[in-house]
Specification:
This protein has 176 residues and is an alpha/beta fold. The chain contains five helices and seven strands. The longest helix has 18 residues.
């Protein structure tokens, strides 16, 4: 599914983010930038050791913020590592931290001149964020950013599994 926002396209696909041929992919990282499971582990495995070497030099990333490394062996030129919140019921600023993770990733992509970026569904795996809530926050944050900033021409959500794709599609259809 695709929708136009200003001069940009927001696209939803089901697939493997490590295979994207795009300027930058976003990694749902942990605050130590230490690699891990899920999308984080997949990106580090596919990208090779140079990404981890750069992450070690950076040292870490607070929740809601983003840092950037090269793409290593990936088709993407860059990896933007962002840390989403661990979901603890919704009363600990999780929604704003999740929105900030998306917004900071977009700002970093813009500042580095990236025209296209791919996101996973941040915090919905091991960090336990409810998928429906996370989809609303992700899509609203991206759409709001693209309404105010026209330098990124493509934002693709690469969703792992049919359930995630269906939830994002339902949410996006409800917003347009």
């Amino acid at each position: 599914m695709e929708v136009k926002v200003n001069k940009s396209t927001v696209s939803l696909v089901e697939g493997d983010i490590t295979r994207e041929e795009i300027d930058g992919i976003v990694n749902a990282a942990n605050s130590r930038l230490a690699g891990g499971g899920g999308v984080d582990g997949a990106i580090h495995r596919a990208g090779g050791p140079s990404i981890m070497e750069e992450c070690r030099k950076i040292g870490g990333c607070p929740t809601g913020k983003a840092v950037i490394t090269t793409g290593g062996n990936l088709n993407a030129k860059y990896v933007i590592h962002t840390v989403g919140p661990i979901y603890r019921g919704g009363g600990r600023n999780e929604a704003e931290l999740l929105a900030s993770a998306y917004r900071e990733s977009l700002k970093l992509a813009s500042s580095k001149g990236l025209k296209s970026i791919a996101f996973p569904s941040i915090s919905t795996g091991a960090y336990g964020y409810p998928l429906a809530e996370a989809a609303k926050i992700a899509l609203k944050t991206v759409i709001d950013y693209l309404k105010a900033n026209t330098n990124i021409t493509l934002v693709r959500f690469v969703l792992f599994g049919r359930q995630a794709y269906d939830e994002y599609e339902k949410t996006l259809k409800g917003m347009i």
